[in-house]
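Run log // design_07
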């Protein structure tokens, strides 16, 4: 296997990539039709791209552009952002005492916060999901776009169960709310060749959200019923749920475990080696 000429990006290279990404985002922002975009979202996007990203340092990259834009979209008042609560920082703490956390992945990291926040606050977890994306491949040395292509993939709302499973024991808490936010995004990948010139080094650096496609609010346990297809038999197996929902076997299995944890479904026996599930009636 050919040795790659970069296994780690140095500080100088990272600064160059930061500047190149920011320049591409500024250019992309200029192309957006403001009339076709929600004003609050455009204002949040403009604030992050034109100000926060321009002034960023290396350390600020832990908070990616999607996270920053959504934080400013759901709360424009900076005085209500990054508020300390009992040893943790809330992304947003509103005057009414409610908390908003934007979490792009690794929901297991939320558990310590939830243990504290849910005691006194209504907590909304905003989960950004990319519904459609354009992939931009950029030369790491010059910052020029080498090629662009539209990804044919679209995320299903049920894909959120992969993350929700990690906090499944909290989902029935009366103070928790989940907001799934499907986005249109542009992803920036930096590309360079190996020393031999035969292989490519690709690294996704950041994503720029271009708009909200839809929002799904899960405020009560009953709201999760929307993930149970209507055409299922009274008792059904994982395989039947997978077929009816259009989900892969693995994703269907995770979904069933979450819905069972919530009390939406219950196991009622077996058919052969397969567990049977049934909707729990009130």
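design_07 sequence
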């Amino acid at each position: 296997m050919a040795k790659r000429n970069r296994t780690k990006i140095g500080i100088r290279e990272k600064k160059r990539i930061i500047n190149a990404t920011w320049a591409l985002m500024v250019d992309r922002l200029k192309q957006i039709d403001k009339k076709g975009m929600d004003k609050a979202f455009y204002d949040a996007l403009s604030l992050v791209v034109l100000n926060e990203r321009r002034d960023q340092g290396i350390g600020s990259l832990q908070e990616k552009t999607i996270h920053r834009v959504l934080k400013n979209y759901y709360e424009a008042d900076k005085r209500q952002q990054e508020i300390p609560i009992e040893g943790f920082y809330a992304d947003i703490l509103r005057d009414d005492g409610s908390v908003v956390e934007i979490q792009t992945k690794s929901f297991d990291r939320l558990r310590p916060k939830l243990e504290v926040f849910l005691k006194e606050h209504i907590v909304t977890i905003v989960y950004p999901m990319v519904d459609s994306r354009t992939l931009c491949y950029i030369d790491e040395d010059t910052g020029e776009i080498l090629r662009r292509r539209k990804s044919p993939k679209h995320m299903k709302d049920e894909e959120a169960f992969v993350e929700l499973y990690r906090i499944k024991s909290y989902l029935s808490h009366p103070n928790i709310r989940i907001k799934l936010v499907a986005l249109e995004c542009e992803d920036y990948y930096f590309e360079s060749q190996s020393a031999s010139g035969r292989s490519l080094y690709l690294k996704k650096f950041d994503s720029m959200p271009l708009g909200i496609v839809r929002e799904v609010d899960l405020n009560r346990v009953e709201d999760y019923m929307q993930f149970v297809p209507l055409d299922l038999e009274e008792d059904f197996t994982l395989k039947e749920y997978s077929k009816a929902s259009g989900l892969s076997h693995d994703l269907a299995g995770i979904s069933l475990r979450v819905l069972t944890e919530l009390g939406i479904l219950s196991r009622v026996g077996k058919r052969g080696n397969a567990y049977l599930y049934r909707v729990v009636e009130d």
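The helical segments are 11-31, 39-52, 65-74, 111-120, 161-164, 238-245, 249-261.
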